[in-house]
Structures are given as C-alpha cells and as structure tokens.
Amino acid sequence: MAKGNRPSTEVNSGSMADIAFLLLIFFLVTTTIANDKGIAMLLPPKPDPNQPPPEVTKNDRNIFKILANSQDRLLVEDEPLEDVTELKEMVKTFVLNFGSPGEEGIGIYNSMPPNVKNYINANGRRADYSDDPTEAVVSFKADRGTSYELFVQVLDEINAAYNEVYGERVGITAQEFLQLDRKDPDQDRMYDRARQGIPRAISIAEPNKASGG
Amino acid sequence: MAKFKKKTNTSNDIPTAALPDIIFMLLFFFMVTTVMRETDIMVKQQLPRATQLSKLERKSLVSYIYIGEPKKPELFGSEPKIQVNDVFVNVDDIILFVNQEKDKLSEAERDQITMSMKVDIEAKMGLVSDVQQELREANARKLLYSSIQRIDR
Q1: A179 by DSSP, 3-state: which?
Q2: Does A44 touch chain B (CB under 8 A)?
Q3: Which among A115, A170, A208, A211 is most buried, taking Cβ atoms within 10 Å?
C-alpha cells in the first residue's frame, strides 16, 4: 500500500459551527425573557358567613381615604386630586404624622433616625392625620369603571410611600428596601427592624356593585 | 526593494477550530435561560408601569391569569376577557382553575400559591375585582399585579 493514498481519518468539523448556530437561533427566537415582577399584595381572607362584618371602630382621622371614579379622577381625603404622583408624599406624611401617639407610637418615634424625626416635626403633627403609624390605614376604593392603569398607579404610590418610610427608618432608599433578601440573616434583621410596628395597612375596598358616574 | 522582503513562516489563516466551542457556549447559555412559552396569550397585554416592584421568589408556585381585550375581536368580541391556560373562562370558573393549580402543588405548598395577574392597562377594575373576589373565595390570597419597571423619577 502506498503511503500517500490513505484517506484522511479526521472528521470534518467545519459545519459544526453551522449546526450550533442553527440551534442557537432557534433558542434565541423561542426565548421569552421572564418579566415576572409586579406589585405584591395579600388579599383579605374570605368573609365568614356566620359572622357579621366587623364594625369600623377606627377614628376617621386614622383612615386616609382615596376614591377613584369611572372617569379616572381621584378624590383624596374629600378633595379632588389631579396629579397622582403627589399621593406618595401625602401618604408618607399621613403615616408619619404622630398626631397623638400611643405608647407604641412613641416607641416607634424614638426608633427613627434624626432625619425622619426632623421630617415628622416639620410636616407632621396634624390634627386631621393619623395618631401614629400603628393606627394608620390607607383605604383605596375604585369604581368598577376605573381603569386598571390608574389602579396600579395609585397602588404603586401608596406602596412607594410605605417603602420609603421603611427604608428611611433603617437608613436606605425605598429601592434598596425592596431588594432586601430575607434569606440573608443580616438583611432579614434589617427588614424586621424596618417593618416592626408599622403595618403596611392598605385596604382595598370592593367597588360598588352598580357602576354609576 | 524586493531584497528587504523577508520570508515569513507564520501562516495567514486564523484558527477556526474554537469557533464551534464559542457558539456552543452561547447555545448552552440560551438553552439554560430559555423558558418555553407555555400558553398562547389571546388577549392584549400592555402591562402597567410601576416603580415598587418585587420579584417572584418561586416560579413553581405561580399561576397566571390574563385579562384584557381579545386579540381577535371578530371572534371573541371587544369586551375584556379572562384567560387562564389556553382558554377564555368566566368569572365563576376561577375557583375551579385555582383548585386545579393547587392540586399540582404538594400539600405543604398549597397555601403559598401566588396568582400573577397580567392585566392590560385598558381593562376596567370591575372585572379585576370580580376575579379578586373569586380568588378570596378560593383562598388564593397571594397576588401579584404584574407590571413593568418604570425608570423615570
């Protein structure tokens, strides 16, 4: 046998890249980047038919009322509001009002860093806002005709206010507060310290059955 | 001039043997990160924008409810509809759907089921709150209003 006539034993791997490209393009096309982010909320438990609905015993000043009608207009604390973005500041002042704090409220006030105390003394202490954060409730009622967009916007503003309160309490921003990882013991402790005593009391009322104007 | 021209021994072609490896690396990256589209979404989905978003912790606990105007108004009308899995359902069927989803989870995890509401911004709150009432009834209380991060402000 002549030495030069032996067929080459190498597999031609030049088209390997092409095959891989083909697969790559397939996966590129079918990929959907998961955008599973959103505003988390916990619904109240279902009403017990044997028990009458609980009476509202809260003082009127402890409830921050937001109403939205079917024309997507807002009524906040009995006054019309045009700009949704103002809500955050209003809710924040409402929660951090300390009008006549109870014992727990005083404890929360004392746990606040100096800049929040200054904020409270400058903006708070209003007679028509909440007694202290443990008592404060934000109530949001939308009409059946309200658009979902406005609903999410309002909910976002309320949550932003609460997250800012929590964040400032431990000296971080609202975004940083949201990104706290509760699996990490240090961050979990921080989270608990921020949340302690201030419930995220957002009440979403059921819209009226009949859709009026 | 020719006498200065040196004869070089280096070869001119770039070795392409590593090219398939690079492509494979990319391929594996996309294979791992890919989530196959399970359902065909038949409703319009323009999600609202918000700033205070939290991430879902465990994908396996999540079920999706899509609400919006049907993409094919000539077939399904132009009123916003509720879609779960691959079908349009009525409000009364939500409890059934939640129970089916709960059955897929193990006993211990059933209470932690999270419903992700993917609602078009043009949908009205009436329908959304009807769905919420049913979810309360079905004891699936963890909810996520799916939205997109807003950058401004």
Answers
A1: coil
A2: yes
A3: A170
What would the pLDDT profile of A131-170 be if each residue is shown by its tens digit? 888 888 888 988 888 888 898 999 999 998 888 888 888 8
**Of B58, B14, B46, which is closest to residue B146 (Cα–Cα)?**
B46
pLDDT of residue A4: 58
Is residue A56 classed as helix, strand or coil in its secondary structure?
coil
Q: What pLDDT, in 10s, does the model give residues B23-66?
A: 888 888 877 877 666 677 888 888 888 888 887 777 778 888 99
d(CA B86, CA A157): 33
CA distance A155 to A149: 10
Query: DSSP strand E in A14-115: where?
Result: 37-42, 63-68, 74-76, 79-81
Q: List the beta bridge partners of residue B4.
A: none
pTM equals 0.78
Kindly report the CATH number that applies to the domain delimited by B49-149. Answer: 3.30.420.270
CA–CA separation, B119 vs B69, rounded Å?
Answer: 10
Among residues 16-45 of chain B, which lie with CB inside 8 Å of chain A? Answer: 16-17, 19-20, 23-24, 26-27, 30-31, 33-37
A20 CB near a chain B CB, below 8 Å? yes
